[in-house]
Amino acid sequence: MPQNDYDGSKWAYCAASINGWSNAEFFAQFWSSTKVLKAHKRLDEIKAEKADKIAQTQEEDTCKKTCKQQETEKIKHARQKEAQHVAYKEKKGLQLAEKEKQMIECAAKCWQSGLQAPAAKHYQKDSPTKESHYRESIQSSKRGIISMLQRTHSFNIE
């Protein structure tokens, strides 16, 4: 084997000899192909990094959408609950107004007829002995009428 000015393996020397390359041409070709391989490897790494970033971004977007959807559901539920609460309060207010109206109508009837508070036909609902109320004369003030009706008719205004 002829001596060349490089310290290469027998394979490298044979490849260079077969192709008719000089030592400089062989090394240029070798380094060039190595750089191409490194470049391809780096491109593959970059593609993998991009794919990872895309997957991570999609995962973050999905998480954000889920959180936003949950927040929207919480707000919707809170609004429904508030609407139910308002409706309940309105219903209670109407019931109380109706009770007060009934009490005033009953008091007005008693007042117009000049009767005293009915005793025999009205009993306390909670009383175990069902004792009748004592007769009371009707007072002229609304407060007195309401308190009398509450005692005789078991009305409660809260």
What are the salient characteristics of this protein?
single chain, 158 residues, mainly alpha, 3 helices, 0% strand, disordered N terminus
Can you describe what's shown?
With 158 residues, this protein is an all-alpha fold. It is rod-shaped and about 135 Å long. It starts with 9 loop residues before the first helix and ends in a 5-residue tail after the last helix.
User: How large is the radius of gyration?
Assistant: 50 Å
Please report the number of helical segments: 3
Report the portion of residues in β strands: under 5%
For this entry, what is the oligomeric state of its chains?
single chain
Low-confidence stretches: 1-8, 118-140
Order of helices and strands: HHH
**How many strand elements?**
0
Helix content: over 70%
* Biggest beta-sheet profile: none
N-to-C terminal Cα separation, in Å? Answer: 117 Å
Shape: rod-shaped
Structural class by SSE content? mainly alpha
- Mean residue pLDDT: 73
Short description:
The protein has 158 residues and is an all-alpha fold. The chain has helices at 10-19, 23-113, 142-153.
Give the arrangement of secondary structure elements.
Blueprint: H1 10-19, H2 23-113, H3 142-153
